[in-house]
Amino acid sequence: MLPGVTTLREPLTRALGPKTGKALENALGMATVGDLLRHYPRRYYTRGELTDLSSLREGDHVTVLARIANVSLHPMPQGGPRMRGEVIITDDRAKLMLTFFFRNSGGQYKFRGLKPGLVGMFAGTVSSFRGRLQLIHPEYELLPGAPPNADLTPELADEFATELIPVYPATAKVSSWVIARSVKAILDPLDTGEDPLPAEIRERYGLYGQAEAIRAIHRPLDWEDRKRAVERLKWDEAFMLQAALAQRRMAAAALPAMPRPHVPDGIADEFDAQLPFTLTAGQVAVGETIANDLACAHPMHRLLQGEVGSGKTVIAIRAMLQVVDAGGQAALLAPTEVLAQQHYRSVTAMLGPLARRGQLGGADDATGVALLTGSVSAGARRAALSDVFTGDAGIVIGTHALLEERVQFADLGLVVIDEQHRFGVEQRDALRAKAADNRPHVLVMTATPIPRTVAMTVYGDLETSTLTELPAGRSAIATHVVPAADKPHFLERAWARVKEEVERGRQAYVVCPRIGDGPDSDAPDPDDRDPAYPDEDDFANMEPTTVDLSHGVPRTITNVGRRQPLSVLDVAATLDAGPLAGLRLGILHGRLHPDEKDRVMRAFSAGEIDVLVATTVIEVGVDVPNATVMVIMDAERFGVSQLHQLRGRVGRGAAPGLCLLVSEAPPASPARERLDAVAATLDGFQLSRLDLEQRREGDVLGAAQAGRHSSLRLLQLLKDEDLIGQARTEATAIVSADPDLARHPALRAAIEDLLGVQAEYLDKT
Ligand code: ADP
Ligand code: MG
Fold first, then answer.
1. Mutate which of 272, 274, 277 to test ligand 1's pocket (most atoms within 8 Å of Cβ)?
2. Counting ligands in written order, which one lies closest to the CA of residue 332?
3. Cα-atom radius of gyration of the chain, to the nearest Å?
4. Which residue minimizes the CA distance to atom 19 of ligand 1?
5. DSSP state of 190
6. Which of 272, 314, 397 for mutating ligand 1's site (highest number of atoms within 8 Å of CB)?
7. Of all protein residues, whose CA lies closest to atom 17 belonging to ligand 1?
8. Residue 622 Cβ contacting ligand 1 at under 6 Å
9. What is the helix (H) or strand (E) element at residue 246, kind and residue range?
10. Cα angle: 691, vertex 696, 700; to 5 degrees
11. Ligand 2 being an ion, which residues bring their Cβ within 5 A of it?
12. β-pairing verdict for 43-45 and 82-90
């Protein structure tokens, strides 16, 4: 240790010396003192957990409190420069041997300092040598305060007990012990400087100061001490993040945007007048909020959440029309080709004559709607690009083909991003950049319900609106688990149900986790697939497979034992040959040619296909109200939120929806319990919490958060909801009063430190 004061930003190589510093850096990626001090103990030992010496068994990993009884040095029997150091420790009931090997010429440092009478903690793996139990090269720590030959009395034990002994996440190269020692060495000379958390907040919530919290999480006096440390450090995580987000919200809100106020008697009003249904109260309220946002001279950044089928698209169309009326253009960005095409069809259908600018039968003030996806033919693309450029197309719908450089807008005023979870920040950014001087307004829509705290954290720079009700007349969706392995006849009944529905003029989906085998099984789809994204057909990347279809009845396809997930191609063939013979089956997956996909979707919408066997390509947005049944094969292969999304495709019309989750997962297995949970509730928010509980926080926050640089170490998005809410309120207040944090230099510096990596990520959001 170098003398003097240590600061959080100091390199570890300087604070601890090059050897230890480098070791920590290589093993755990730590560079500064701050990095080390944010490496928190995984758990703590208490006296009660220490192993009793008389109960040791070979192979145990143990930590014992004991007194050194005897120390001796022995040459090796075969001679040579190697030596063996032997230390006998005792807890007064039993004895244990510690063994150290080293060369005469040095390497005794591990062994030095061990003197009879001293008391310490010894940790290692128990082995045996000639019938005697031993620890070879144990980690140890001598109790500094214990007098020589101290009795191992209850009082002495208490002395250890009051200090919880930290156990750190460690690697083979750098043990918990080394980390604990390094931390200890740094804590003494540590000067944390000014506390970044403003004093009034610390007082209001009774929080530890920074220095005290850092000391207490590493060397807690007792559990209460450690609890208060954790609370304070959680505050740091929540507060710094929320302050950074508040700064970004304020900066974004200060950017110039062209106001696009409502124009009376424009196509927006005409559209409202011809709507075939009444807007729900929620749609009206959110619509007003958005209309007001659009009228502002600063860009809107709004997240619209709403259950599948809650009617988000109508809200988007109304917002787009307001912008078109005001002389601007609106872009609707969809994550897949299928969805873009469907949006195009439904937008043009809902607008009717209002979308037929310059065409026969078009309204006088009609606008144009352009579709731009990767598969639009060259001629159509040229025409669309020209309409986008001249402004003839007021509404432009597309996939990420919209982001290409040659797509130039006359006056882009609004960007609507549908099903946000499939888009990355880069894409959002690229589209935003297409508005020349002013920033466009941005509306992000998601049907994946996001728990409040996740919204506050992941989308913390967006304002949030939520549609909580479904339009009237929507029917409930009943969901059942079909245990294909233990009750095969249930599956036969499922197919019988599908047939019944079709006989009543309804349609059905059968969803499978995989496309199927074939030489190009891994070939990416040109448009629907986005390398940066969780793919619409994740399982298509698995090894090609053959499923035993020799029996030709559906029961057999679920009886193959440990097998590949079921595929669209195999299941369709089996159904066609057996249980659903005679029905009109269609196939849809990401590997089909885009024209073919479009053709299939049209045919299904038109009722020319009875049963659509598909991958999750239908997960988002597909809207065929006549479809009433969905059978999901190998349902345990899908995530909870994904299942919820999928079943949202049925029950969209007046007839009740039925979703059957077919699975071989045994009763009471975790997979089966997940499915039961999905079957038990239609509350997407509840299910998204379930989903979140099963993932790590880092996954939730996305790739930029993953890895050891994640700034969230202690904070748990679900459990710490209140704390995050408070931190957000406080941080917003501080930042509103002092946007550059000029009066809070320590806070500003801490945000930079803590969010260094994340800042890049946030910048792009
Ligand atoms: P989401 O995108 O939120 O999943 P959509 O906007 O696709 O939902 O709406 C689902 C269906 O409900 C569409 O067919 C739409 O026309 C219809 N719809 C939307 N709002 C209403 C309403 N207020 N009353 C009746 N039907 C509605
Ligand atoms: Mg939608």
1. 277
2. 2
3. 32
4. 311
5. B
6. 314
7. 311
8. no
9. helix 223-254
10. 70
11. 313, 621
12. unpaired
Query: How many angstroms is it from 390 CA to the middle of ligand 2?
Result: 28
533 vs 763, higher pLDDT: 763
Q: Is the CB of 657 under 6 A from ligand 1?
A: no
CB 456 within 8 A of CB 725: yes
Q: Which ligand is nearest to the CA of 350?
A: 1
Whether 419 lines ligand 1, by a CB cut-off of 6 Å, is no
Task: Select the more confidently predicted residue: 460 or 554.
Answer: 460
Within 10 Å of residue 490's Cβ, how many Cβ atoms?
A: 15
In the 8-state DSSP scheme, what is residue 48? G
Q: What proportion of the chain, given as a percentage, has pLDDT over 90? A: 40
* pLDDT score for 549: 28
Cα 621 to middle of ligand 2, angstroms: 4
With a 6 Å cutoff on the Cβ, whether 220 touches ligand 1 is no
Task: Report the separation in Å between the CA atom of 279 and the middle of ligand 1, taken as the mean of its atom positions.
Answer: 9
User: Which amino acid does the sequence have at 636?
Assistant: E
Which pTM value belongs to this model?
0.64
Which ligand is nearest the CA of 312, by number? 1
Q: In ligand 1, which atom is closest to the CA atom of 315?
A: 6
- Which whole-number Å values give the CA distances from 519 to 367, 402, 760, in the listed order? 45, 31, 40
Q: Compute the C-alpha angle 581/602/344, nearest 5°.
A: 155
**Which residue matches tokens 């049209």?**
602
Beta strand pairing status for 119-129 and 61-75?
A: antiparallel
pLDDT value of residue 510? 97
- pLDDT given at position 530: 29
Over the range 259-287, which residues count as b (16 or more CB within 10 Å of their CB) and which as e? Answer: bbebbeebbbbbbeeeeeeebbebbeebb
Residue 309 CB–ligand 1 contact under 6 Å:
yes
Distance separating alpha carbons of residues 206 and 341, to the nearest angstrom: 56
Using CA atoms, how far apart are residues 506 and 152, in angstroms rounded to an integer? 80
- pLDDT at position 390: 94
What does the pLDDT read at residue 431? Answer: 63
Q: How far is the CA of 633 from the centre of ligand 1 (A)?
A: 27
Which residues, including other chains, have CB under 8 Å from residue 590's CB and lie 6 or more apart? 336, 515, 525, 528, 529, 535, 536, 537, 540, 615, 617
Contact call for residues 564 and 637 (beta carbons, < 8 A): no
The answer for 170, left when phi > 0, alpha when psi is -120 to 50, beta otherwise, is beta
Of the candidates 54, 69, 255, 250, which has an alpha carbon nearest to the alpha carbon of residue 151? 69
Ligand nearest to the CA of 653: 1
Count of alpha carbons within 13 angstroms of residue 508, beta-carbon side: 27
**Ligand (nearest to CA of 623):** 1
What is residue 544's predicted lDDT score, i.e. its pLDDT? 25
| Region at 411 (left for phi over 0; alpha for psi -120 to 50; beta for the rest) | beta
Please state at what angle helix 176-187 crosses helix 18-28, rounded to 10 degrees: 130
Cβ(165) – ligand 1 distance below 6 Å: no
Helix/strand/coil for 732: helix
Q: Is the CB of 314 under 6 A from ligand 1?
A: yes
How far is the first Cα of the chain from the last one, in angstroms, to the nearest whole number? 43
Q: Give which of 272, 265, 270, 316 is closest to 294, Cα–Cα.
A: 316
pLDDT over threshold 80, residue 186: yes
